[in-house]
Each structure stands twice: as C-alpha cells, then as structure tokens.
Amino acid sequence: MSEKKILEESSLILNRRSFLGKSALGVGGAALASVMGCNLFDTSENGVLSPANNLSGAKGILNGLHHPAKIKRVIYLFQSGGPSQLELFDYKPLLNVRRGEELPESIRNGQRLTGMTSGQASFPLVGSQFDFKRYGKNGTWISDLLPYTSKIVDDICIIKSMYTEAINHDPAVTFFQTGSQQPGRPSIGSWLSYGIGSENDNLPAFTVLLSRGTGRPQGQPLYTRLWGNGFLHSLHQGVQFRAAKDPVLYLNDPKGTTKDTKRAMLDQLAALNDKHYQEFGDPEIQSRIAQYEMAYRMQTSVPNVMNIDDEPDYIYKMYGTDAKIPGTYAANCLLARKLAEKDVRFIQLYHMGWDQHADLPNALSKQAKDVDQASAALVADLKQRGLLEDTLIVWGGEFGRTNYSQGPLTADTYGRDHHPRSFSMWMAGGGIKPGIVHGETDDFGYNIVRDPVHVHDFQATMLHLLGIDHKKLTYKYQGRRFRLTDVEGHIIKNILA
Amino acid sequence: MKKIEWQILSIRFIKKITLILLIVIGAFSCKNEANYSEIAMSTKDMAKIPDKIDFTFHVKPIISDRCFKCHGPDKNAIEGDFSMVTPEDAYKLLGKEKDHYAIVPGNVEKSELVNRIFSTDANVVMPPPESNLDLTNYEKEILKKWIEQGAEYKTHWAFTPPQKQAIPDNNENWGNNEIDAFILKKIKENNLSPSATAPKEKLIRRVTFDLTGLPPSPSDIDDFLADTSENAYEKVIDKLLDSQDYAENMASEWMDIARYADTHGYQDDFERIMWPWRDWVIHAFNKNMPYDKFVTDQLAGDLLPNASLEQILATGFNRNHKITYEGGVIPEEYRVEYVEDRTQTFGTAFLGLTLECARCHDHKYDPISQEEHFSFYSFFNNIDEQGLVPGGRNTIPKPFINITEKEKEDVLSFVQLQKSSRKNLPVMVMQEMEKPRQTYVLDRGAYDQPTTEVFPNTPTAILAFPEAYPKNRLGLAKWLFNPDNPLTARVAVNRFWQRMFGTGLVASSFDFGNQGALPTHPELLDFLAIKLRDEGWDTKKILKYIALSATYQQQTIITKEALEKDPTNKLLARAPRIRLSAEMIRDQALAISGLLNKEIGGPSVKPYQPEGLWKETTGGGGGSTASYIPSEGKDLYRKSLYTFWKRTVPPPSMMTFDASSRDLCSVIRQETNTPLQALVLLNDPQLVEASRVLASNAMISSGDVTNQIKSIFKSATSRLPDAEELEALNGYYSNMLSKIKNEEVNAADYLSIGATKLDKTMAVEDLAALALTAHTILNLDETITKG
User: Fold this and answer.
1) Which of A37, A86, A121, A426 is the most core-located residue (most Cβ within 10 A)?
2) What's the distance, Cα to Cα, between the start and end of chain A in Å?
3) Dihedral sign for Cα atoms in the order B546, B550, B553, B559
C-alpha cells in the first residue's frame, strides 16, 4: 500500500481521535472507559459517572464546554526574563523629569526587593531613554523601540496593570505557566490538552518553540517543566519543536533507512502484536499498535508543518528576514502561524534574554528588534487569513522592571531590577477588545492605580475565552482538586469584546 | 464492546467497524491516571445499594470528598457551624435557635442533611452549586441509608494499628501461602477463579525483572526449564535476591522516593555531588539492611549514639531536595521551602500522608492541623543551612561531609571514589545545630508570617509522641517504628506489593488518608504489615514471600469474563501485565546485546541524548550543566540508574517512559502508552545500536538465519518464537535483505549508528537485515512487558 494511501486511510479512521490518543470518546467510549477501568473521568466511588462528567462526544475531559468559546487556540509569545514595561508600553515622563532623584518611600511602600538590589544604598529614578509617540485611533503611547507593534495598536489590547507575587525568574515564570511558584503543577498547555483535547489528529495539542535573544544571549535559562504535564497524564506534556536535525525528539528514522522500511517494520510489528493480543487479550496491546501509527503519521506531519520553504516573499517581508533562519523568534512566529492553521491548541513560544539588570538601553534595543516585527506580523498574518477571530495571541513576560536604576545611573546607561508590582503585556484576537489599554500605573510607573490584573486573572481569562470555567477544570491529585488558577482568579471582564 | 472485543485488528485491513474500536482505543491508554478512591467491586454491583452500609467503605469516601472541604478537619473553614468529622459534631443541635439536627441517627425525616442533599433548590442543596462538587443519586441514597441504619462512625482505618488477622479457610486446591488464602477468598466472593500458573518462561522473566530490573539470560531460562525439582523457582528467587542487580534495582526505586538528582534543580541547575549517598543506598540493599534501620539511618543517622560516617552519609536523604542559586532570591523564603520539602518527603514516603496539605491551613481531609504540620516541620528545621548558597556554582551548600581516600579506607569502602576525577567529595548531610532553631506556625505557609511557636511533636490522631523519645529526628524515627504506629509498616509493605504487582493493595500508595484509596484487601494488608514488622523488617524476606505466592505466579491472560467482572484487576484473579519501566527498557536492550557495563556506583554518566538539548535552554550560569557532553567508551552503557539527572532538563527518553522528574518525592509512576514512546523505541540510537550488536552476536553463534532470529527473539522476550512468528520474522528478514540488496536501505549507514565498532568479519547485508529484524523484535509489545 502506498504511503499516501495509508495516510489517507488512517487519518480517515482516526480523524475523530485526538492526537495523543486519549480523548475523542463518544458516549460509547465513556461507557467503555469505565468498563476498561480507565479513570479518565472523575467517577464516584462506584465508577458511576456523575452527571456533570457525562461525556457528550466532547474531546478532552470536559463535558462539552462550560460556555461558548470565543477562541479555539492560543499562541503565547512568552518574553522570558522580564521585559521593561517602562521602555516599551508604560510611558512615564515624570521619571525623566525626576531622573536621579531617590524613589520616594511612599511609593515603594514596603515592596520587598530582590537580593540583587536590596543592599543598594540608593534607588535613583530613571526614565526611558527612548521616546514614546501616540498611535492608533486612541492615541496609545508606544515606544520608538516598537515601530511595528505601533502599527497594530488598533488590533491589540495592552494591559498595563499586570502584577505577580514572585520576584525572581524561576518562580515567576513557573507561576505564569503553571499557576504555582514552586515546580510540580501542570502547565497551561497541559491543562488545555487534558481539558479540551486536540483539534488535530496528527500533531500534538501543545507545542513549544524556543529562541534566544540577542540582547542578552547568556540570560536566564528555561526548564522543561515549564511545558511539563505535572501530575496530569504525560500524554498532555508539551512537545518541543526544534530547529535541529530532529524537529521533534527521536522523530527521524535511523540513517540508512527509509519511510518504506519503517512502513514494513510497523506492519510486521502490528501483525505480531496483534497475534499477541489475540492470546493475551490486553487492550494495551491494541493501544500500542495505534500509537505506533500515530508516531508514523507524525513523521510526516511534523516536517510538513515545519517546512517554511514554500512561503512567498511577501510573508518574509512581513516577518522579517530572520524568519528564514530556523530557531529565531521570527521563524518561530511564522511556524506558530502554520501550527495555528493546523489547529494546534496551544502554541507556546519562549524568547529568552529580557533580563536587563545592566546595560539596558543597548540590550533592550536588541531584544525589541528581535521580536517587534515578527510579533506584529503574526497578528497581521492571522488577521488576513481570518484566523485572528478564533485565536488568542498573548505577548508578555514574567514580571516588569523597577523604575529606579540597578547599579550606577550614568549619562548613557542604567539597568533595572525585577519589578513584580506592575508590568505590561498585550493580548489580541478572538473575544478581546481590540485597540484598548486596560489598567494604569501611577506617575512613577511603580504601583497600579486602576484595574489590577493578577497572573491568575490572566489565566482565568484565557480559559474563559476557550469556553472553560477556570474553577471547573480540575484534576484530583493526592486527594485534592487542583486547578490552573489554584484558589484565585477573576475574569478580566473589561477587556472582553 | 462485547461485539468488537475479539475482532482482529490489523492495521493493513482496517474496515469500517474498527473505526469504533480505534476511537475508543484512546481510552485504554490511561493506566494510572487514577482517581484512586474506588472500592473493589464488580461492575454488576455498581448501581446496587448495599444492604448494610459500612462507614469506612461506603460513607467516608463520599463525605470526605464532597463534604469535608467545608465540614471537615479544617476548623477555620467550617461552614454553618457543622462538622462531620466526629459523631459528636455531626449529631449536635444546630442553628441560632438550636432547633435542628443535620443527622439524627436512625431518623431520616429529622435529618436536615438528607433534606439538603436531595433538595432541588439551589439555595438549599448541598453541596452548593458554586462548590463545583455534587453527589450522584447513588451517593445520596448511600448517605440516606447510612443515617437510616444509625449513622455509625468508625475511626479511619489507616489510623488504627494493624490487627492480627485470621487466615481465611482455603478449601481449594490452590495457593502456596497465606497471601493466596486472602486473595482467593475475594476472588470466590466475586464468582471468579484464579488463573493458572504462568509458563515457566514468563515466570522467570517476571520475577527477574521485578527483583533485578533485568531480563533473565537465555541460560537462566534454560536452567530453570531444565530444573524439575520442587523448589526450582525458589532457587531462582534466592539467586536473584543474592545478586548485585537486586540492590541496584531496589536503589533505582529509592531514587524516585528520595528525589535524587545530580543537580540542584532551580534556575541554572548546577551540578551537586550526591552520588556517594546513592552508592550507600546500593550498599544498604546489598547487605539487606532491615527497613527500620535503613530508614532510621537516613532520617537521623547523624543523631545516633556514636554515629558512624556511614550513618551520617545516609542522612543525605534529607538533602536531595532542590536548592536555588538564583541571585535575587530572599534566602529565608527558599530555606523554608527546603524544610517543607523534607517534611513532605517524610510524609509521602513513610506515612503515606499529604502533610503538605496542612501548610497553609488545617488539613481539609485528614486530622492534621496546621500547628501539627509545623510541629513535624520543626524536626527538620535545625540544620545550619542557607536558603541561597553564596559563592556560586562550585559551592556545595552546608552542612556537608568531605569524602576522601581516607574516609573511604576507614569506613566508606562502598563509595566508588576511584571513578571520580575529584579527590575530595563534598556530600550534603544533616547536622543538627546545637541550639534548635525556633519554629513557628507560618500564616498561610508564608516564610515571613510567623505566628505561634511550635515544638517537635506528632499528631495524636496518628500516634502521640512518647515523652521518653528525644524531640529530634531520632525521636521521630523511633516514633515511626514504634509498634503502635499505624502507618509505617502498612505503607512500606504496600510499596513492596506495588513493585511486585504494579498497584498497591492501597492503590494510592502516596495517600493513606481520608482521600486516599481504600485497601482492596485490608486483612491481607494488615497481615503483611505485621509480618514485615515482626520478622525484623526484612526486605528480601518479604519480597521472596510475595514472589512465592500463587497469586504472583498466575498467568496474565485476560479472559472476557475477568475483563467484565474486574476490569482493573483489583481482585488479582490474574497476574497484571506490566510495561517495563524507563530504566528497564534501556537496560534490557543493553543487557541482551551484551553492551551492558555492570560496574557499580560512582559519578553519574551521560549516555546518548539528542544534541543541543541542554544548550538550547541554558542561561549564562555556565558550569558542567550548560551543555551535555556524552560519556565515552563503556560509560555509555552503564545501567540507567547511573544516568546523569539534570532536574530542569531530565533525560528525554526516560521521561517519555514515565520516569519521575525528581522535583519532589514520588512513590508511584504513571504507566502511559504514547506515540512519543514509539518514536524512542524506533529511532533512539541506543536501541538501533543494541539491535545491531545483538544481531552481530547472533551471527557469531550461528550461521543459520532461523537460529539467529530464534536466539534474538528469546533474548528479548524470554521465550522461543512459535512457527507462525518465526515464519513472519524470516519473511521480514528476507524482505529487508532484498531492500538492502536493491539499495533501498543503506546498510553501511544503518550499521554505523552507535559508538560500538562494527564487526567487519561478517557480510554487511546480512548483518543489516538481521539488525533490522532485531530492531523490530525490540519494539514488540511483549519485549517491553514484564511477563
């Protein structure tokens, strides 16, 4: 049988199944699952499905959605390290006026500082070295560092009033991605894979793309637990798509062999495994056969989606020439669009290097240049394809940066420490009011004065857009029902369209 | 299901009917994604309300899960002044007017609880809609009938000491020891029968994997088949328990429990040196150290009278938690995390309790107050440690001991110092401060919110802390092994059971509390717990005893009837069919190909790993964990137990097969079945190389292709292929050979994978065809299954 034909046939067979094999259960599936003793569902003590958990053909654990969804998928452009809101989105001319003056105690108001500046004798205020101008219908202030983002300002919602409790990278990034500062909980993408499953039969529901910033190439590290499944089934872990020989780990056939050899091997395996199943009756054997077929399909589907050679020139003009270099942020944004087109549920990008403790003006210019054009292009590209309506794009880091200089403030340079109490991020896409600014900080850019948004609020809102009540997507582990938003989280109603 | 269950599924000839089958296959891939709180009960009984309601088995799981959140042990969370924890609370007069009762034993009409749970009024119904908890009709009926029958309470089963149990009568001609009497009783109650004994090939494969983590060698199998003496099987067990492989295999599980890693875990994730502690664990299993001593040394070896350096080294157990080097942190915040981690590990590993759930408030389900949580915590709070380690990546956090040639010669002969390039190994241990650090309840668990001072103590609901015991970790260890401690022996023996059967008698081996699973065989659990305790906490002895049971030796075939009556195999009317662990899969490939390097201990090694994996996530911290430099030569082929564990980027092929991340103490692994696993088995260079070496060895021992295939098949599955399988594999071999000859396969390229030199004495085409055949055999479901 030709490869193409097999692919067609198996995708026909499996087209109602989720990528990683556990969802897409119809009602019959639910009954069967309980017969098979698979506790996919929160069963009562007696294995009887409680009404709230009865399946109605939905994929994932949820019994349909809690309310109609505005979006089907998320692209999360995570800017790792803590981008400075003061040089990018939160325009504070007062800091330029009072440059070099001490941060008033009334403003700091007991905020705990990181170990890096808590010993500093002086906290000299410093304003942005980059100018801001007004853009869009509402005249939103955007920094000169973001010339492309300034052009899409009418499509995005800027939140200037984000805050977190974490003051250091590891706990702060972990908090954004898992809802808890300490490691061990599932990441957002894993929750979605568990909750609502996949829309694509040949690709993972949760994919991860990494890139390294030019502003601080040796910045903060990342950890695979950020896309880990925590206590959820490992079927829900994020799958890293890499700009390496193996775009997904272990994807490539051993050298010297071909697809045809692989097909022959799988056929042989299936026949022998099936014979074994006839003897032992263990359904896991059948599952194994199916998973090998899925692996086989991935070997085609992943390289296909990763191949950006066929993109026309105007696309590269939009995303920038970096987009031709695999592994760059721009290339990853382009890939993100392709994955979105394939209905991958959660597409997580990480761009490292936003940790400007020193040499901020120089390093931040490079970081901004890394991401500005491609981020804006992604919004525009999805829009022109009609995909922005049901996709959420998120741009932001784990915390902001202080309004005072870390280390000496000189005529042409300064640094900024981590600031958890206020920072900016933006969102765009389905269900989000475009062209607005939400929240406000004081004139010092230190405290929030209007509409604070906590990390859990952001997470609750993202789930809400996907049709999920964040309080109801739970997993019982070690006796407790866990959720992404822990015990907090309020939907940010004012940004909803 | 009945209709399609026995349908032949052939991927090549899938017809429409199998569409349904395939859709539901997803459901099968979910072993262990468990809501563990279930009861052994056949599906037939599911909807039937029992005649006599039992508090422990029927009522408690419901009220704990649905009611305790607001009416449970957390006294600060009690709603409506109504608690259901004790009968006194549950039966008391309620309301401002003191005019009603939630529960009136024997009187359903007067019991407001019944009224509330059956109410359709959203303002009245319990649990309230906003709790996102609800009761099924079955559960409502259970609660109603319980009240009708007198609303009797019983102490939580796990908090009363194990009771001596009468051995059930066994009139059947089945069974080898007491285990079988207990198991058989339940099997018969459910109208099932035990399965026949597994074929000898399967049995030796199963027991060899369970005890040593490796497959039996072909000669082990032949010897066993040839040995017709009555105690042939027992001799196999004795030999296995006597091997170094046993000790390493036991250590392998202990690494998960002890959250062992070779790096510090947070942020830059620098290297640490804890492997001498791991060498001690192997040493301890090797000499069959009794479990009580094994645990006492690890918890409090430093506090024993005249503590030896070995006993101090053992306390490294408490220091295997993550430690941060991230510049900006507030040290005390992290120091508190370390103490919490030690406390949590103690709870999970030895008590089977979720002590961590009482950090921010009283436990919602179990009788552990926040104050009692911090009393536990205070045992672990007295070492002179720092939340943030000053001095950068090469500083080992204090307190630590230095191991040099002198220490090795004096006491620590088992530490494989000579394998290290260092002459001095700083290993973190416990060392009590002279003046204990003051410990406080931390409001909401926050490091900077101390409230009431607390002192070392244990919850009375479990076992009061005897006055005579020292109020330190040594006293805590004594308390743990006090004969009246209701949990220690049960938790330990349950884990031994779990390693032999895949699932414990208490499925939630991490939680014996109110939210945990109930024991499927409570009497057997008590019997085994007492046996373990009274016979000297002898690990080898109890494992041998379990292995000798007829229950353990059953075959795995799942009949249609058994699948219907007991889908999850709680009754054990058949042996479970268990996939090999991540370590076993790789170690088996190494062992059967002859690549395995059986050296013991020493610094962890770096086998094959996809290029660039560490580099692409690393920060500016530098050091030995910034980029992965694979080991060379025979260090590539050490057992997986010795694979270097970088916590923030753990070995991907092992994680794919459900290894624990080592972030926290873990006493059970998931068993999943995913496409990423298929990719590892199909494409990991280690598997390809092992296939080639396996083929090459087969060609050396025989010139005949059929014999070569037979020997490879036997190495991988522990049995010879039948005629049909042999024909299929021969056909496959010929097919591959012609592809190679047609140059559809580049044999030279395929054979060049892996660091082992190619044996040039044999024909490349033949070797490649046989290697591809071996590679297929290594991918069989049977090959990655125990037996």
Assistant:
1) A86
2) 50
3) negative
Is A253 in Cβ contact with B11 (below 8 Å)?
no
Q: Looking at the complex, does the CB of residue A124 fall below 8 Å from at least one CB of chain B?
A: no
Burial of B20 (0-12, 13-18, 19+ CB in 10 A): middle
pLDDT digits (tens, 9 = 90+) for A263-311: 999 999 999 999 999 999 998 999 999 999 999 999 999 999 999 889 9
Q: How far is A339 from A341, CA to CA, in rounded Å?
A: 5
State the Cα–Cα distance between residues A451 and A458, nearest whole angstrom.
12
Angle at the Cα of B429 from the Cα atoms of B463 and B320, rounded to 5 degrees:
80
pLDDT in tens, A181-217: 988 899 999 999 999 998 888 999 999 999 999 999 8
Q: CA-CA distance, B288 to A68, in Å (whole number)?
A: 60
Largest CA distance in chain A: 82
**Could you give the C-alpha distances from B538 to A183, A465, B646, in angstroms and in order?**
36, 57, 33
Task: Write the residue in A28, A44, A472 that is nearest to B138 by C-beta.
Answer: A44
The string of DSSP codes covering A331-400 is HHHHHHHHHHHTT-SEEEEEE-----SSSHHHHHHHHHHHHHHHHHHHHHHHHHTT-GGGEEEEEE-S-E
**CA of B99 to nearest chain A CA: how many angstroms apart?**
33
- The Cα of A402 is separated from the nearest Cα of chain B by a number of Å equal to 14
Interface test with B, best of A14, A20, A45, A296 (most B CBs within 10 A): A45
C-alpha distance from B46 to closest chain A C-alpha (Å): 6
Quick one: pLDDT at residue A61?
Answer: 87
Mean pLDDT of B145-151: 96
Task: Tell me whether residue B611 is exposed, middle or buried, using C-beta atoms within 10 angstroms of its C-beta: 0 to 12, 13 to 18, 19 or more.
Answer: middle
pLDDT band with cut points at 50, 70 and 90 for residue B47: low
Q: CB-based contact (8 Å) between B390 and chain A?
A: no
A124 forms beta bridges with A102
Asked if A257's CB is within 8 angstroms of B35's CB, the reply is no
> Does A260 contact B11 at a Cβ distance shorter than 8 Å?
no
Minimal Cα–Cα distance from A22 to chain B, Å?
4
Q: Does the domain formed by A73-243+326-495 have CATH 3.10.20?
A: no
Of B676, B770, B775, which to mutate for an interface test with A (greatest number of A Cβ within 10 Å)? B676
Q: Which of A390, A420, A436 is nearest to A70 (CA)?
A: A390
Q: Does A134 contact chain B (CB < 8 Å)? A: no
Q: What is the DSSP string of B165-185?
A: -PPPP--SS--SSHHHHHHHH
DSSP bridge pairs for A159: A425, A438
